[in-house]
Amino acid sequence: MSSAEPFVLQAPLTILYQDEYMVAIDKPGGMLVHRSFLDKHETVFVMQTLRDQIGQHVFPVHRLDRPTSGVLLFALSADVARLLGEQQQLKLWRKHYLAVVRGFLPQGGELDYPLKEQLDKIADKFSRDDKAPQQAITRYLPLQQIELPIPVSRYPAARYSLVALQPITGRKHQLRRHLAHLRHPIVGDTSHGDGKHNALFKQHFNCRRLMLVAKQLQLPHPVTAETLQFNAGLNELAPLFAQFGWPVDDTYYQQQFAELFMEEKWQK
Predict the structure, then answer these.
(1) Residues taking part in catalysis
(2) Is 126 part of a structural domain of the chain?
(3) Which of 18, 122, 188, 246 maximizes the CB count within 10 A of its CB?
């Protein structure tokens, strides 16, 4: 979806979890979390839509880029928002994503590649642009592959991988930039991706979105300390995955994410 096309919500937001303290939703791809003067034409936003849907104010505690779909959590009070923010500072949250990338990613690994802070010309015009690159760490695990008999560029066929991702740090556009650094950019990424492959997905699969899903979020409840796990759906990507012969069952992805949970395999 281009920034010139206003987002249209087709149905109520899918609520994955709700209690008196917080609410988790499955954010649609292409939907802005809140109002922004960078997208003045937009009239539909997650915060206002969710507020109207549940009948109470919501407090953002993290964000997803506009083109990314998946688990998005809100607090229902300022106090709980503060507690959830403290959890993130203590790195108590575990996030897992799915991405469709260009090429066959041969094996999993942990990428420790610092990223220079990305500043917006308008929103960040008073910010310093001479800061040193910040540490950025991403774990990745290839899950599935497919070769399509569709010529692209100078190649007779197009190859893609489905990859599980765990960001250990939370830099702006970290996953998109890290996959591009690995030379396996995420399909549909108009900033760091490959335009020829983006066009292929539009033409052959009518797929115009960024192929990145915030699939799972695990965290301790900020009040009861109970371990919570929220899982977003594949939604409009499910038919494409099925067409590729890739799993659409949520159990499969939970098992793969458990592999990335295993801290001992990452000890240096």
Answers:
(1) 65
(2) no
(3) 188
